[in-house]
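Researcher: Last one for today. Full complex below.
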Amino acid sequence: GENVEQHPSTLSVQEGDSAVIKCTYSDSASNYFPWYKQELGKRPQLIIDIRSNVGEKKDQRIAVTLNKTAKHFSLHITETQPEDSAVYFCAASIPNAGNMLTFGGGTRLMVKP
Amino acid sequence: DSGVTQTPKHLITATGQRVTLRCSPRSGDLSVYWYQQSLDQGLQFLIQYYNGEERAKGNILERFSAQQFPDLHSELNLSSLELGDSALYFCASSVGQGVIYGYTFGSGTRLTVV
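Model: Here's the assembly. Have a good evening.
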């Protein structure tokens, strides 16, 4: 089955700096890659996703890049703000697998004011 | 409100007891997924149901079981509870077939075993 690894497990940045979280996946058939943000004690919420026919997608301060050859994808947050502090999860999905998502282990992002 | 409803929000129970967690998926979603999240841990996949049938199983203990009913709501039953079962239990839903979309998570049930 699919295996998703996520790095780093914790990331501390100064407010205004950029943050990058990286994930690798094992199954080259994976074609859908969402990112979730989870604030303390709350539910994970989808913040951005990318499909395998696209190399990059942007939504205001967040962007995701996908390198299918290397089987890795990354989340980029620019101009970080304290409210960006949360745990971020990447995930990957294989077609015809019942929409099953395999999640990475999570990255705790701390943005210091 | 995500459209995925989980009840109860909090549950405190004693070791050895049995509890049932309930999840109603978002309207139109046929698939339900259960996840366990212990303190400072990731999302551990337990089980998936699609249109009433079990579709995939993850690291679910034998003491745990689940089902999805004809109205598509799902229940997760946890029995012979141990202290280590204390965690946040999330339910998520998706269409479950066709074009893949991300899951929508419910707000979770926080289970405390004392």
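The radius of gyration of chain B is 13 Å. Chain B is about 0% helix and 50% strand.
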